[in-house]
Amino acid sequence: MDLSFIVKSFILFFTGVFLLRIAGRKSISQMTLAQTIVIVSLGHMIVEPIVEVSMVKAIGGAVIFVVSIIVVEYIQLHFNRFEKLIMGKSKMVIENGELNIKNLKKLRLTVDGLEMRMRNMGLTKIADIKMATIEPNGQLGYELKEEAKPLTIGEFKKLMNISSQQNESQDAGQNIFDEIYSDTPQKHPEYLN
Question: Do residues 166 and 143 lie in contact, with contact meaning Cβ atoms separated by under 8 Å?
């Protein structure tokens, strides 16, 4: 086995890791179309020199791809239209507990596919969803109807404060020690005296 082959492999591996760190790290499900193309292309370019193509050309091409993805992301940050062109827009798939069949067809997404995404998010009923979208990265975004939202800790504390205030106001007239501290005796029903 040729020593230069091993050295080339290590150089290409670490160059790939370095370039991917520069390009940014996201899981495959969160990648945009442009990022996915760059990642696939980088993988191909990094393997090519091992099959006897110029290592310098491969690294140069990989650098150009990473720089291009950084430029595209920079332009996306500053120009909303360009972002929509590259990334696409969210599509509404559920509105007020009803499926938007028209958008499901545009997305080529079956009801079973939508239900699978809902189950992955812990959602069990379409009727509980106020609105749901398929985001450009393929993830499901949603908002529950008011009656289906879980109780938060903040809301629970507010309810407990209201409840304790009501109990205090009800108990204020029923303090059993009032008779001791008061000069006037309290009236009790005749049968208890």
Answer: no
pLDDT tens per residue, range 52-108: 667 777 777 777 777 777 887 788 888 888 777 777 788 999 999 999 999 999 888
The full length of the chain comes to 193
Q: Which two tokens stand for residue 103?
A: 């958008």
Domains of the chain as residue ranges with CATH: 3-86 (no CATH), 91-148 (3.30.240.20)
Cβ contact 87:36 at 8 Å: no
Query: What is the rounded CA–CA span in Å between residue 161 and residue 25?
Result: 45
Q: Is 38 exposed, middle or buried (0-12, 13-18, 19+ CB in 10 A)?
A: buried
Cβ distance 9 to 50 under 8 Å? yes
Task: Say how far apart CA 61 and CA 159 lie, in whole Å.
Answer: 61
Question: Which DSSP string do the residues of 101-128 spell out, in sequence order?
Answer: HHHHHHHT--HHHHHHHHHHTT---GGG
Mean pLDDT of 3-24: 67
